[in-house]
Design brief:
Aspartate Aminotransferase, domain 2; four-stranded antiparallel sheet; 2 domains; EC 3.7.1.3; single chain; pyridoxal phosphate
Length: 428
């Protein structure tokens, strides 16, 4: 972990904001006055850029009607490829290896159905026990579709402490009967960033396909897929990338697999030259486009364009630099001001081992989370005792972080959290 020196005063936080090279982007987001938003790792704030790109899409639709598909040199007919070109720098991947398509869960289904071809000797899928559950639901479903039993074909690597994943334990579990590995790049609870290169290399050495769930890393962390070289990856575009609720998701297919048949075929995966010939034989495009299925959801894709334009302006290196700096500052304030109330940091401290959010641990986390919301702070809670705090590089200020800690101190001093129940609400 790099050595950073911080100070405890509000003036210091304001000084950090003045020196922030990304500070101008905050004004381009709809930051609600009187609210401290710390939940951008779950659903990013709406930006004026995203709003404008969506309104532009609506205007094109109003003006062009069905001719929207041919306007602007076919931009909207090939909107996935257009957006892929803007996402590619975030992954250091080729644009033709990326499709903006479907949802996270459907893309897991797409990838598993493409790469999982169980044989008598190699038939297991290796997962961890800490990943977001939708990945597991999809994997279990795909195993059953192959006529196998989940208890036989699923291999689960257990966390030693229920918080972190040990990379060596994962690698040790890559036995000869494993056909495919699916893991998260960043754990959604603890913010642990796995050593993707080390694990991917181990899988390739053993002839095992490996894919990554980037939902909690894309837009917060710079990935280098030319170096890591995974077989596939999936992600959502509504967290750090602020594409809007349920925004169309992303899928990466390594170009070395362009000769494979898409597990789930659909007409928008057809080669452009023959797509509108409407033949009943699928002429799969030999890029990631071939893994598209139905007609693209343009209105769920348009806001992503606006955010990606900002990412290009800001630069991923600067975004990651601020993310590391502001989360380090948050951890410093937790240590200095909140530890006496029983709080602790539950995520890795090292820059190279943590994602874009901080995991705040407390035995009474749920009621404290409710009290924070009642005081204008928007974090989120994850079982059993985690308050997730995500200062987002493009729109969270250091003063926000300072005031968050100040409010938490007040809640603990006044025991305000005792006014709230431990009974879980539907969305937390």
């Amino acid at each position: 972990m790099s050595k950073r020196k911080f100070e405890l005063t509000l003036d210091y936080a304001k000084k950090m904001d003045q020196e922030d090279e990304l500070k101008s982007f905050r004004d381009r987001f709809y930051v609600k006055e009187g609210q401290i938003f710390m939940d951008g790792n779950s659903l990013g704030l709406c930006s004026k850029d995203a709003e404008n790109s969506l309104l532009n899409m609506l205007n094109v639709w109003k003006k062009e009607a069905i001719n929207i598909w041919g306007t602007e040199d076919g931009k909207y007919l090939n909107y996935s490829e257009y957006l892929a070109g803007k996402i590619a720098p975030l992954l250091n991947a080729d644009a033709n290896e990326i499709a903006v398509v479907g949802s996270t869960t459907m893309n897991v289904h797409q990838a598993i159905s493409t790469f999982y071809k169980p044989t008598k000797d190699r038939y297991k899928i290796l997962v961890d026990d800490l990943n977001f559950p939708t990945d597991r639901y999809a994997v279990d479903s795909q195993i059953r579709l192959k006529g196998l039993k989940v208890e036989d074909a699923l291999k689960v690597v257990k966390s030693k402490d229920g918080v972190m994943i040990d990379e060596d334990t994962v690698i040790d579990a890559m036995t000869d009967d494993v056909a495919l590995v699916l893991l998260p790049s960043v754990l959604y609870r603890s913010s642990q960033l796995l050593d993707m290169k080390k694990i991917t290399n181990a899988a390739k050495e053993r002839g095992i396909y490996i894919g990554w769930d980037l939902c909690h890393s894309i837009g917060a962390i710079s990935h280098d897929f030319k170096d890591i070289d995974p077989d596939f990856a999936i992600w959502c575009n509504y967290k750090y990338l602020s594409g809007g609720p349920g925004a169309t998701a992303g899928l990466f297919i390594n170009k070395k697999h362009f000769n494979k048949h898409a597990g789930l075929a659909g007409w928008f995966g057809n080669n452009d030259k023959t797509q509108f010939q409407l033949n009943h034989e699928f002429d799969q495009d030999k890029t990631a486009k071939g893994w598209q299925t139905g007609t693209p959801n343009l209105l769920s894709m348009a806001p992503i364009e606006g955010t990606l334009n900002m990412y290009k302006e800001a630069g991923m290196d600067k975004i990651r630099k601020k993310s590391l700096q502001i989360t380090a500052y948050l951890m410093y304030l937790i240590d200095e001001k909140l530890s006496k109330y029983g709080f602790r940091v539950g995520n890795p401290r090292e820059d190279e081992k943590r994602g874009g959010h901080v995991c705040l641990i407390h035995d009474d986390a749920y009621r404290i989370n409710s009290a924070l919301k009642n005081n204008g702070v928007i974090p989120d809670f994850r079982e059993p005792n985690v308050i997730r705090l995500a200062p987002i590089a493009l729109y969270t200020s250091y003063e926000d972080v300072y005031k968050l800690i100040e409010i938490t101190e007040k809640i603990m001093e006044n025991k305000e959290y005792e006014n709230f129940t431990n009974e879980r609400s539907v969305v937390v």
